[in-house]
Amino acid sequence: MANQNFVQIAPDFANRYPGASPKATETAMNIVRTSELLVKRIAELIQPFDLTPSSGLVLGILADFGESLPPNKIAERLIISRASVTSLLDSLERRGYVRRAPHSTDRRMLLIELTDTGRQAAHDFRLLVHQNQKGWLAVLNEQEQTELIDTLHRIQTALSDAS
User: Fold this and answer.
1) For 112-146, how does the pLDDT look when each residue is reduced to its tens digit (9 = 90+)?
2) DSSP letters of 28-78?
């Protein structure tokens, strides 16, 4: 069945790109496409909370950690620059979801903590996202989901080891 969301490789791929694997390229491109679709759906779900997927991740990290964190630790967990985190934090602070607090022992450092509003928003949007994820992935039974997770972990390990 043809679907505009599937990525398919041109029939002459192997001739055009000697030494490459049409199946590997098609697999990689479909993983990226699937990721883009998931992020798009999540963005649509959390838009009413005035959040982006990245700002939602910041709230999730803070909610999961349970304490305040310095911006550099948030950046490490998101694998983004500190400047990007600062921009996200500015936005979240304007919305009343987080606040910056002085570090108790290092005057040069700030800590980021969830406000009560931020904690509630993190719970509410995550519940909504997790409920929808269940539906999106219902096309796979539990065993298939486990196999997909294992496969993705192997690919992630190979990509991590390659760098």
Assistant:
1) 999 999 999 999 999 999 999 999 999 999 999 99
2) HHHHHHHHHHHHHHHHHHHGGGT--HHHHHHHHHHHHH-S-B-HHHHHHHH
Q: Residue 70 is encoded by which pair of tokens?
A: 């310095």
Amino acid letter, residue 84? S
CATH of 50-162, one of 1.10.10.10, 1.50.10.10, 3.80.10.10, 3.30.1490.20: 1.10.10.10
Q: In angstroms, rounded to a whole number, what is the distance separating the alpha carbons of residues 132 and 142?
A: 16
Torsion-angle region of residue 80: left (phi > 0), alpha (psi -120 to 50) or beta?
Answer: beta
pTM here is 0.83
- Token pair in block for residue 153: 């972990």
> In this predicted structure, what is the pLDDT of residue 7?
84
